[in-house]
Amino acid sequence: xxxxxxxxxxxxxxxxxxxxxxxxxxxxxxxxxxxxxxxxxxxxxxxxxxxxxxxxxxxxxxxxxxxxxxxxxxxxxxxxxxxxxxxxxxxxxxxxxxxxxxxxxxxxxxxxxxxxxxxxxxxxxxxxxxxxxxxxxxxxxxxxxxxxxxxxxxxxxxxxxxxxxxxxxxxxxxxxxxxxxxxxxxxxxxxxxxxxxxxxxxxxxxxxxxxxxxxxxxxxxxxxxxxxxxxxxxxxxxxxxxxxxxxxxxxxxxxxxxxxxxxxxxxxxxxxxxxxxxxxxxxxxxxxxxxxxxxxxxxxxxxxxxxxxxxxxxxxxxxxxxxxxxxxxxxxxxxxxxxxxxxxxxxxxxxxxxxxxxxxxxxxxxxxxxxxxxxxxxxxxxxxxxxxxxxxxxxxxxxxxxxxxxxxxxxxxxxxxxxxxxxxxxxxxxxxxxxxxxxxxxxxxxxxxxxxxxxxxxxxxxxxxxxxxxxxxxxxxxxxxxxxxxxxxxxxxxxxxxxxxxxxxxxxxxxxxxxxxxxx
Length: 520
Ligand code: F6P
Hints:
Shape: globular
Oligomer: single chain
Strand order of the largest sheet: 1-2-11-10-8-9
Distance between the termini: 50 Å
Structural class: alpha/beta
Number of helices: 19
Bound molecules: 6-O-phosphono-beta-D-fructofuranose
Helix content: 40-55%
Strand content: 5-15%
Largest sheet: 6 strands, mixed
């Protein structure tokens, strides 16, 4: 059994120090000499500012020491080298190989490159009109069918970045709720539509049901069964299953079992991104992630963005008692970022046993939530300023937003800075006015500010890679496996048996109360 991190001397020291830090005003901590230079670092078009975190000089040194005792540097090397870091499934987690160049791509580089070029040339054929539907029409609408890791990354990126000239429109079909299929299918013409079915397992019910609906709809509308093969691409690690629903073998792109679903946006799962941005845009997306990878491997801990972000999270959750983590993008275009990160963080580190099978004795990942700003200021910020619960925050903003409405952007950034500032300073309303306690704000609430140089494919690649590595580092500190997701299995199995029961095919094993509900 590994020694639990909570029993290490450095963890105990940090716990003792945290008890002292909570008594210090955050304004004083923010005023430490050399604070900004120590706590704000940049790499790959991103700037990570931890200077408003409740991490004083000694806490910072202790957290760097923790990262060094855990040996995050070696853990990072093992990840990139293809060690079986997904221990419960005995395999590597080589999403970094998907964005690597020849010099750092490892043994799998040739195969990765072949697949990447195949996907990118397909994307360019679709964009340029070289790809034709069965009746000779060019593709104007792309419907991406997939859920979880086979959906959230492409949906985030297509929303975050404007399409390049003449890109077909991208629609997403994730939920099994027929309302989504209904809304999407109403808007498109089958003769100029391409369906992408992305499912690593090709067994996920939502994607299976949506793919069957898409195929039936296509055949019904066009009267052509064989024509469907000109209108469908599959991305999967189970090509036989894709062939089984009529996908042309040449149009089946590969997902490898050594890439987890929530880490797969860099693979052929990114096809809608490549269609939306063009192959050049997709290459820039990979380049941003690759530069962040190189930074994560080479930078010393006290300048290493993902490692610093990881230990700042550990400090907030494990020592200061944060119960949730808010990701607040000051960007309409990044409004899907919290959804993407919910899967990345909570499916990865929502675990309660360590890799050796023993129970963790510290809290692991908190609830991650968030939403588009400044809209949130008029909704849930009251809770941030005067609520009773402890939380941590990432404010995320782009310096160059990619539009010309400068006065809007100035207001957006001013609001972002103002919220972080208000949370630090608070406001004390003194006097005998009975409203004074209501109008006072405690302040002393820390946050991280993360700035993207611009909203570009490059910065987005770096941003997503940064969070991936942060999640990995936190998993290493808690000694848990961030790459499996056994917890989602049971609900799926029960769902299948209840589906059979609802359809009157078999009695499901269920509690008496569920049985009663079925009968309503
Ligand atoms: O249910 C969770 C999950 O297994 C995720 O890990 C995955 O991203 C998603 O389902 C979709 O899986 P697939 O790509 O195999 O359809």
